[in-house]
């Protein structure tokens, strides 16, 4: 699973062979979360509130790119949260 972004110790990944709602995976230390690209809600996992806020802020900024990546299944590296 390619890493599409890194910031503040958070890794953002997307599996290209998965089905279901468009989503991405976030890993922060021992925590894992799956986030819906459209709603930005965490749909699975456990993550500290501060990390969730940063992940949602990042995903909001790159929402169009995430949707395009999900549709085309073509990997692109995205900038982290600034």
Describe it for me?
This protein has 2 helices and 5 strands. It has one domain (3-72). The protein is globular and about 30 Å long. It is α+β, with helices and mostly antiparallel strands. The mean pLDDT is 94. Strand 3 and strand 4 form a beta hairpin.
Summarize the structure.
With 82 residues, this protein is of the alpha+beta class. It has helices at residues 49-61, 63-72; strands spanning 3-7, 10-13, 23-28, 31-36, 42-46.
Total strand segments: 5
C-alpha geometry:
globular
Number of domains: 1
Could you list the spans in which at least 5 consecutive residues all have pLDDT below 50? Answer: none
Helix tally equals 2
Which range does the strand content fall in?
Answer: 25-35%
- Helix fraction, binned, reads 25-40%
Strand order of the largest sheet: 1-2-3-4-5
Secondary structural class: alpha+beta
Radius of gyration: 11 Å
Main sheet: strands, sense, barrel: 5 strands, antiparallel
Mean pLDDT: 94
Q: Tell me the span between the first and last alpha carbons.
A: 24 Å
Pattern of helices and strands: EEEEEHH
